[in-house]
Amino acid sequence: MEILSPEAELHQDSFVFDAHCDTLGYAVAPPYQRRDLTQWGETGHLDLPRMRAGGINAQIFACFPGLGYFGGNATSGALQRVEALYDLIDQAPHQLTLIKSADDLAQLTSAGPIGAILGLEGVEALDGQISLLHTFHRLGVRNIGLTWNCRNAAADGSGENTQYGLTPFGRELVEACNDLGVMVDVSHLNDAGLDDVLEISRRPVIASHSNARAIWNHPRNLSDEQIRAIADGGGVIGATFATLFLRQDHKNATLEDLLHHIDHLVNVAGIEHVGLGSDYDGTSVLPDLASGEKYPIITAALLHRGYSPASVRKIMGENFRRVFMETLA
Ligand SMILES: [Zn+2]
């Protein structure tokens, strides 16, 4: 019998839910270098073997509009990413399964396949049509990030220096997501849009990969007021490993900075409302957490920081699992 350290045992025993990666971009080329996600890659952050080694049980795979920003068609770019996930599941059905319902999520076990949740990061792919939300829902998309950093038909992203809230299409979209049981994700949204989402949404919303502005005042991070409002609505905020959102001199970011953000999110939102969203394969991440197999380091660090095992489990994934169980039909 293998003897595990208390930290390793807690990690193995925890349900680990990562709320954001851009890995599907690497299964679709160009503009990225294609990788075989069934194999442990020498580059990039995440693939099936590294997810397994990191003890990840559920993963949101974002479909970034990709081609929409690189001179192509966003709908095509998103559909290619959806197909890439289907293809990966076909190649490794015992390792990965698509999560479409609360039942699917409830049935995940640590020995069984990892649960994949499809998401859109920006709704460019919907082409301003609610009917296409239904199409993407039929295909399994269950998390909708309204924007990336730019303006689209629904809202303005956090990279736009504007005070505009949701467009009529954006409002209709939030209501349609509520009706369908699709999670609304406010990471990347500008402040006015976030206020509108919180006012309109009848269900909890998440910020899949955002940190705290009180620690590093970046437009992609959340104010204490926003953190509180997301938590009050029953939602969850995923602290992200992306160095850009950890500290101003981001090249010097360390695990300690992530822990600092997590402490602050927990203090403001409460322990029930904080999770993790790595942003693996989306940007530069913490060197300490350079790729998926490093995930157990976070469990150990939280435990050493004084979080109880029950609290560590909540942050590692129970909170995100709960809110998706509530939202998915
Ligand atoms: Zn992002």
Task: Write a structural description.
With 329 residues, this protein is an alpha/beta fold. Helices cover 37% and strands 13% of the residues. It contains eleven helices and nine strands. The protein has helices at residues 6-13, 48-53, 74-91, 102-106, 130-138, 168-180, 191-200, 224-232, 255-269, 296-304, 309-327; strands spanning 16-21, 56-63, 96-98, 114-121, 141-145, 183-185, 206-207, 236-239, 274-276. The strands form two sheets. Strands 1, 2, 3, 4, 5 and 6 form a six-stranded parallel beta sheet that branches. It has a three-stranded parallel beta sheet with strand order 7-8-9. The termini are far apart. The mean pLDDT is 95. Zinc ion binds at residues 121, 188, 209, 279, 282.
Q: Calculate Rg over CA atoms.
A: 18 Å
User: Overall mean pLDDT score?
Assistant: 95
Q: What is the helix tally?
A: 11
Helix content: 25-40%
What characterizes the major β-sheet? 6 strands, parallel
- Overall shape: it is globular
Strand fraction: 5-15%
Q: Encode the helix/strand succession as letters.
A: HEHEHEHEHEHEHEHEHEHH
Low-confidence runs: none
Distance between the termini: 40 Å
Q: Provide the structure class.
A: alpha/beta
DSSP summary, beta strand count: 9
User: What small molecules accompany the polymer chains?
Assistant: zinc ion
